[in-house]
Amino acid sequence: MNIEITNLTKIYPRGKKKALDGVNITIGSGIFGLIGRNGAGKTTLMRILATIMKSTDGKITFDGKDLLEHKEEFRSSLGYLPQSTKLMPRLNIVEFLDYVCILRKMKDKKERKETIANAIETVGLVGEEKKLLRSYSGGMLRRAGIAQALIGNPKVLIIDEPTTGLDPEERLYFLNLLSRIAAERTIVFSTHITADIEHLCNNICVLEQGKVEYLGDKTSFVSRIDGKLFELTGTPEQEALLRQNSTVTSVAYVDGKPQVRYVAPAPVVEGSQPVSPTLEDAYIYALGGVKR
Amino acid sequence: MLFLRSLWKTKYYFLIATALLALTTQLWERHWILTDPGTNNFFMSCELLVPFLVLLPVSFLLYDNYEIELGLINGVSTLNLALCKFFSTVVATLIPLVASCLLVRSKVYWCKPSSIVIPLTVPEHFQLYLALSAVVTTLFFASLFLLLRVVLRNCYAPVGLGILVFTLFQPRMQDICSLNLPFSQALFDPFITRYLIGDAVANAGFTVEATGQVVDPFPHLWTYNRLLFVGLAVVILAVTCILLRREKLHESFGD
């Protein structure tokens, strides 16, 4: 499914600034990564896409159809995993998914049972059916959330910051799960963790203060700083100089000395070595560099 | 389907409500619970019905954001969700209520409609009393509803408690009307106005019962009673707020 977002703007009633400011994005099939720092407007965009929030201005179309005019049709092919991990704590996974099936207007009990069993198997929660959701770990809750989003076999999945707070193993499991279910689907995936994007997405959008900072493929995004990224292990004075005269993408202290990665047209301090940029370098550069 | 699911989830309440109602009816109730001929539906609309109607929007709180969003994405409006839960609660309350009444009426000899009790006095501005009573009773029950929701995480408990209170105080009606009930006891009745205001309003007259008392205690009793219940509501709300500060609001209102 192709989703076209045109000039999308959102101003909250009591907000002083625009949460989204004239956003234009085209999303095709596969996993589309939405990245930005906290408060950049990712969740607002996801909620508008999920049809649970209205935009102030702008238009969204899917396969050429206006989202507002064909809301029910879009919803029937939509799965959504919000940022919240609470789900319904006093239900077990089967009861929870049964509730979602009922919301999806599946009347046939046998069909519901099969759908639930498939979803549980897909997300690897077989054997955990009797436990209440409140006893699930963060990763299990995320998987239960994905199971919920998969009910009805949706063509579009909207997944809002799913890996926040997960331990590395759970995170990796979750990302692999997303890769598996991505076939023939459009997945819009938001995060502020660049490693997630590196793992999953080819096409990305960087949001900054409600505006699109970058839209395109991941490789081009990284190549924007090809040949402009340098690394220097030097003194605090040199670090201060680099902060003034370049865009610093990271500072790590090695044996008490600052190891600075920075973007500049040419080396600012003698002894700087050119290095290959990572997605994180490109991302931090796009956000204006590290300030602290 | 959603309504049936909500109704099914009231099954435990259904049993508890039946037991409670049967017990209270056996112990306390000597009249027809639903309508007593000594009073009139007019008070019901003001003091009893209004609080329960107010619980309808409050029942939106039974759903947290996640459930609401889940509903919306699946094409089920928030109103629909709330109505399903609210009406399933009402059904699960009414069935044991009516069943208890019918059972008791058929089994216990003295459970017959009482004779008509004519109010002792009719306050001059009874509409004002009724309106204020409705406000106070609503405030009281809504605050109780919230507290119980937070403490028990059970949306049915307040309705059950409301009916329990209602049935517990019901037998005192005749006593109050004939001024046999001590002032201190009447003070704690959440539905005070209805005891003294009925259809007799239309007749613009009142009858003094055989007690021979001529003192009109209503305004004072009513004032103290209403103040007491406003105070109780404030205390309950304060306690609710304190409890909510201690645990996340989101968790408190989850399913």
Give a description of the structure:
The complex is a heterodimer of chains A (292) and B (255). Chain A has 292 residues and is α/β, with parallel strands linked by helices. Chain A has two domains: 220 residues, Rossmann fold, CATH 3.40.50.300; 63 residues. Helix content of chain A is 33%, strand content 27%. Chain A is built from ten helices and 14 strands. Chain A has a six-stranded mixed β-sheet, with helices on both faces. A four-stranded antiparallel β-sheet of chain A has the order 2-1-4-5, covered by helices on one side. The radius of gyration of chain A is 22 Å and the shape is globular. Chain A starts with a strand and ends in a 6-residue tail after the last helix. The model of chain A has no long low-confidence stretch (mean pLDDT 88). With 255 residues, chain B is mostly helical. Chain B has 13 helices and no strands. Chain B is elongated.
